[in-house]
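=== Structure Prediction Worksheet ===
Name of assembly: unnamed complex
Input type: mixed (protein and possibly other molecules)
Chain count: two
Listed entries:
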Amino acid sequence: GIQVEQSPPDLILQEGANSTLRCNFSDSVNNLQWFHQNPWGQLINLFYIPSGTKQNGRLSATTVATERYSLLYISSSQTTDSGVYFCAVERGGTALIFGKGTTLSVSS
Amino acid sequence: DTAVSQTPKYLVTQMGNDKSIKCEQNLGHDTMYWYKQDSKKFLKIMFSYNNKELIINETVPNRFSPKSPDKAHLNLHINSLELGDSAVYFCASSQGRLQEQYFGPGTRLTVT
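=== Predicted Assembly ===
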């Protein structure tokens, strides 16, 4: 099956710093989504981005499908950005396969 | 209004018991899912329904049985609970199978 690798596994930032999270996948995909799981456990959909670039406020994402990776950019990080960021991909209309996540801690 | 809701939020029970988790979505979506998140936060699909029809059934013990009475509801019944069933169970929905998914708040199941 398709493999999803996220890096780095852990990231510690000071408030105001920028960061880039990476998601590599082993095969072509029809669907790629980024999620944020906050410290209270809620999973929030950040981006649906099988290809191209999208921006939403301080967050933006780029997927280069031909090279099998996606990047999530967080600018001017805030403490509320803390949590786990998951990348998930789907191939052939089967099911979303999740990566192991990047745990982000932002301190003030 | 909550888009995807689950009840209960917490469930503590003993081994061997049978329990159910309920999920409802008010987004008008036609596809619903159950995921399991283990203690290492790894998320894995269990089941998916599209228009009340089971379309994904991953390798899950047959003690787990999903039921979708209508497009807006997807329930999960678990028989003969085991210690290893302890996890957070998430319900999610989407409009179509290749579209963005919206998750419920999760149900933390603890089996003692």
